[in-house]
Write a structure and sequence with these properties.
By secondary structure, the chain is α/β, with parallel strands linked by helices. It is built from ten helices and seven strands. Helix 6 crosses helix 7 and helix 7 crosses helix 10. The chain binds guanosine-5'-diphosphate (GDP). It is found in: Cytoplasm.
């Protein structure tokens, strides 16, 4: 599997994030609720050291609600402060701020005991590309045009944004690289749009998605495409069925496999077929 991230980029991203971490009391890690494990940078724990961590399971509108509950319990059991939300909704700060307060309570109490005057809680947002970092920041900042882009690390000119009643947030997120631990992780990242389409061959991504749906939600998958296939069918049969049902023909009445591939990826990625969580909590 080819990788877009190189050791130099990773080292730079890591250094920049570590530099910014010194300025904050709490880290708000944004994950994709559909892949809470695959969208977690493996070095995150090492990089954030002992900083309290609020975990935002973003894009919850596209994840399986039961799986989301299981993930929330799992994160709580590990001493994290998780919340599941749709980053595009207003008022998300009302869900995030109380958790940041709880997460930092011990540290601030200790400071007060030492006679240090209470100040705003300082936070920064961290996550891999496309999990919704800018969406969340823009939403909290209530201003258009917070910096977007998939450059590693963080940009230089930063500002603190007032976030809620007692929090300040760095306006630029820390961007970390996605993990490429195995092929399944790469396919999940591609299926949810976290990595560029070119990194994993698209047909493999589509096949992964089809097989997932045929295993976990075959009725809805069949109903959505108005087809009748099963897990036992050859994958070409599945492509053919969708192509035929949706009239995706190339010249000479052949099925246009590329069109089927793109269609399936688009439908799954955007939650058109249903709400799915591709990382299972019990297998972690
Ligand atoms: P970033 O690279 O982490 O800053 O990600 P962006 O904020 O640019 O978001 C990537 C895409 O996900 C955009 O198209 C957003 O509109 C979309 N997005 C962000 N949050 C949510 C969410 O909670 N639900 C849904 N459905 N889409 C979201």
């Amino acid at each position: 599997m080819s990788i877009n991230w190189f050791p130099g980029h990773m080292a730079k991203a890591r250094r920049e994030v570590e530099e910014n971490l010194k300025k904050v009391d709490v880290v708000i890690e944004i994950l994709d609720a559909r892949i809470p494990d695959s969208s977690h940078n493996p070095m995150m724990d090492e990089i954030t050291k002992h900083k309290p961590r609020v975990v935002v399971l973003n894009k919850v509108d596209m994840a399986d609600p039961k799986a989301t509950d299981r993930w929330l319990s799992k994160f709580r059991s590990k001493g994290k402060y998780p919340v599941a939300l749709d980053g595009r909704h207003n008022q998300i700060i009302k869900k995030i701020e109380p958790l940041a307060v709880k997460a930092t309570a011990d540290d601030f109490n200790r400071m007060e005991e030492k006679g240090i005057r209470r100040r705003a809680i300082r936070a920064m947002i961290i996550g891999i590309p496309n999990v919704g970092k800018s969406t969340v920041i823009n939403n909290i900042a209530k201003k258009k045009g917070a910096k977007t882009g998939n450059t590693p690390g963080v940009t230089k000119q930063q500002q603190w944004i007032k976030a809620g009643q007692q929090m300040e947030l760095l306006d630029t997120p820390g961007i970390l690289w996605p993990k490429f631990e195995d092929e399944a992780t790469g396919k999940k990242l591609a299926l949810t749009g976290a990595i560029k389409d070119t990194v994993v061959p698209l047909d493999e991504v589509a096949i992964f998605g089809m097989q997932y749906l045929l295993e976990w939600d075959p009725e809805r998958f069949n109903a959505f495409y108005n087809i009748s296939v099963s897990q036992d069918d050859d994958i070409v049969t599945v492509f053919d069925a969708i192509g035929k049902s949706r009239g995706m023909k190339a010249s000479g009445n052949e099925i246009n496999y590329e069109a089927v591939t793109n269609r399936v990826i688009h439908d799954i990625r955007n939650g058109k077929i249903g709400r799915y969580t591709f990382d299972k909590v019990d297998t972690q």
